[in-house]
Protein 1
Amino acid sequence: MFSEWKQEKATAALVDEAQALADKLAAAKRHFVEGHAAAARFWAASYLADGQDLHQLIEWPTDAVARFAATAQARIATLRKAREYDSSDGLATWLHTARAVAEPRVAPAVREIWQHLLDAGPNADSMAEDLIQEAGLPADKGRGVPKGFASQD
């Protein structure tokens, strides 16, 4: 019984964390949302260059999603310690997406997050393209929402 309560509390915390980001993006100035969208797109390109398509997270095996989430969480902590907040925010979007794959109750907030990023202004694309080019990564497919997380999915 205690373990069920503990698990429910942990799940509620994940939902609250994702919803807080969705609310932050909803209330943010356009340049903040554009920067967040650009960073999320950069991370997708970075992982794709290593053979991992984050847009297909929903198709990944459960253990691969869990490994990605653990690795992303550790990398986010490192980035934040180095004060690389824009980059860590972009990766956090993917962390929330992985959590939503593992726990469907997180999905509504994650759909909101992706809708805000999809609605970001045109500077998001040019910013992402600059980040991708500066990192020497191959060009990506452009802005998009991961499978299963478009608002109509």
Protein 2
Amino acid sequence: MTETSPTGRDFLPGNPASPPSTAATGPGATPPVVVGKAEPLPAQNGAPGGDQLARIEDKCARIEDKYARSEALLSRVEEKVEGAAGRMNEAARQSDLSALRSEVRAIADRTRGLPGSGALVLTAVITAVLTVALTIAAQRFHLDALLPPR
């Protein structure tokens, strides 16, 4: 029970700051209650706290095992994704090369129909000879008089 101190505050019996209680202090009397000092609880049969701690440790071990398996699985998935990305890049390069080959083949087909350099040189020579011949003919037959005056 609590008693009221002269200042009007409540106090607990056995508190050294509180006024002395009326408890007996003889050899057969009970010891006074000490506030603020923790004493360990007596061990009970079978130690239920130890069993609970063991269950918690087992559960932690299972969680760690699951985490390790998940981490290993994620590592394998990461390796597979990297391999697939590499194969996709290679396929894209092959596709680009295939498209490039198709374009080069189309350009080659178009240029095969064009005249070669021999034909172009022959055409240039014929054009030059005909130009000279026609110019000489126009001067001989005085065809320059047919041109309009300047």
Protein 3
Amino acid sequence: MRARRALTLTVATAAVLIGTSAPAAAATDYRTSTITYNCTFPGVGAQPVTAVAGFTGPDAVASGEAITAGFFSGGIAVSPDLYQLMAVSLGYDGVRGSGTLPITAVNAFPAAANAGVVIPAVFWDSFNRAFYFSGTGPVTFTAGPPGAASFRLGTPFSLAIEFHRRQNGTWMPWTMACTLRVTTPGQYTYFSPSVPVS
């Protein structure tokens, strides 16, 4: 029988982030707020989804030291209307896959890097309309001059997704292309807090 999660994206992903945090004492959890992207889906085109992400990194670093973003994880959720279209009308009731998510840096180098992620298979229902990702390895930056280093979830990105078809039990490959949804005011895509640099 399929395991089903009946948690909202925020609560469920918070549990994912807590569960993957590093045990080291001198480490901080860095997280985004909920961010809205437009992502492409089979049969319905680009649709808004909400995402959150987080990683574990050092409490503080000296200029020139490494900032290693590890235990990268998060989730992406579809709206009730999109769930109705995908799962009820079109018969796509599950998702799995992999890909890369861009992280951009301020006062750290390189200015951008990609975090590899895997998406374990999950089956949707009306309560669980999200899928979750975890990093395949750490992403390392070098701290810039004294001050603070900041990181944000970049755009655009794409994921190599497979959607499960309820009708015949097969998985259909799909490239999910996502761009940051334009809003007024603009969205805050930074991980919080910033990393102090001495």
Protein 4
Amino acid sequence: MTDRDAAFEAYFAARSDAMRGTAYLLCGDWHRAEDLVQQTFTKIYLAWRRIQRHEAMDNYTRQTLVRTFLSERRRGWFRFESVGSPPPEGAVSSGGQADQRLVLLEALAKVPPRQRAVLILRYWEDQSVEQTAALLDCSTGTVKSQAARGLTTLRGVLEEERVR
């Protein structure tokens, strides 16, 4: 094993779980999240020897992950089907934090992909507006407007769920 491979292996071992969590938030499916992480780390491995600043890899990895997700969404490679049946009418909620988290994740899946990417980078990954703009290769104004629209969409979806 070369030093390059050992360094990449160490980085993958240290960061793949965190990236898998981010990928899940982007796509809402653990299997697809695994695919996104695999595609992301494959791209990073291929560019590993050209990367000069390995200490700044997290931002590059997040950027690659988000761009891979958005690219797939634009191409329409994936068609989603629900494998489970919806809960019966009048299902009782236990009202716990886990239920709230599931409701939030379901609502987040209904937010358009670019807005969802901004929301996840800003509020889950705790990136600044400037960092998010750099990761998505857009202006800070775009990040702010996408975040505002995404939050409005998310609130609307959550309100619909609350009314049901």
